[in-house]
């Protein structure tokens, strides 16, 4: 018995969002934590002024990256399970859209909870930290918007 492809794209929503959350976390952790050294996971609570605080931040960053890896792995499991229902050439566009939306959701959640509510760190501490935090949130909102447009247009093209 063959299964008809799912032309609505619903089979890509969960895999795309979970993959986007994990990949968005990796971009944040690798670029902002490691490469630019603008902040670490708990640098708002444990400023990088002592070796002990740096160790706490490094362990927290490592745990954060492990969580991102688990999200990406889970997203891939969901994607493989959905593969038989993807249907049509617009599947890549839909999946890309949901991944961008997931990345944007990560930015919005992390930017709101960690930067604003808990104050565990800012995107870049210093004189313009509020501007960096707001830009991070705006970028997240744009990712969600562009992702949704791609995902929904891909769905229209497959119908």
Rg of Cα set: 18 Å
Largest sheet: none
The first-to-last residue Cα distance is 23 Å
**Using DSSP, what is the number of strands?**
0
What would you note in describing this structure?
The structure is a single chain. The chain has 159 residues and is an all-alpha fold. The protein has one domain (20-158). Helix content is 70%, strand content 0%. It contains four helices and no strands. α1 (13-35) packs antiparallel against α2 (51-82). The longest helix is centred in the middle third of the chain and has 32 residues, at 51-82. The chain is elongated, with a radius of gyration of 18 Å. Residues 1-5 have low confidence and may be disordered. Keywords: Membrane, Transmembrane, Transmembrane helix. The chain crosses the membrane at residues 12-36, 56-79, 91-109, 129-152. This is Putative membrane protein.
Task: Describe what is shown at a glance.
By secondary structure, the chain is mainly α.
Keywords:
mainly alpha; single chain; 4 helices; 159 residues; disordered N terminus
List the helices and strands and how they pair.
Elements: H1 13-35, H2 51-82, H3 91-117, H4 129-158
Protein name: Putative membrane protein
Pfam family, one: DUF2243
InterPro entries: DUF2243_membrane (IPR018719)
């Amino acid at each position: 018995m063959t299964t008809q492809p799912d032309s609505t794209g619903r089979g890509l929503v969960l895999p795309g969002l979970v993959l986007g959350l994990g990949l968005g976390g990796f971009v944040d952790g690798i670029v902002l934590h490691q490469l630019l050294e603008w902040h670490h996971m708990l640098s708002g609570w444990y400023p990088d002024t002592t070796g002990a605080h740096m160790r706490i931040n490094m362990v927290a960053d490592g745990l954060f990256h492990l969580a991102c890896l688990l999200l990406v792995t889970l997203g891939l499991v969901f994607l493989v399970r959905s593969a038989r229902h993807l249907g049509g050439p617009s599947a890549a566009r839909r999946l890309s859209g949901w991944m961008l939306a997931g990345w944007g959701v990560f930015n919005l959640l992390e930017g709101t909870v960690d930067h604003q509510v808990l104050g565990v760190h800012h995107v870049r501490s210093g004189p313009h930290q509020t501007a960096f935090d707001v830009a991070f949130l705006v970028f997240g909102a744009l990712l969600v918007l562009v992702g949704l447009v791609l995902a929904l247009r891909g769905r229209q093209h497959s119908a």
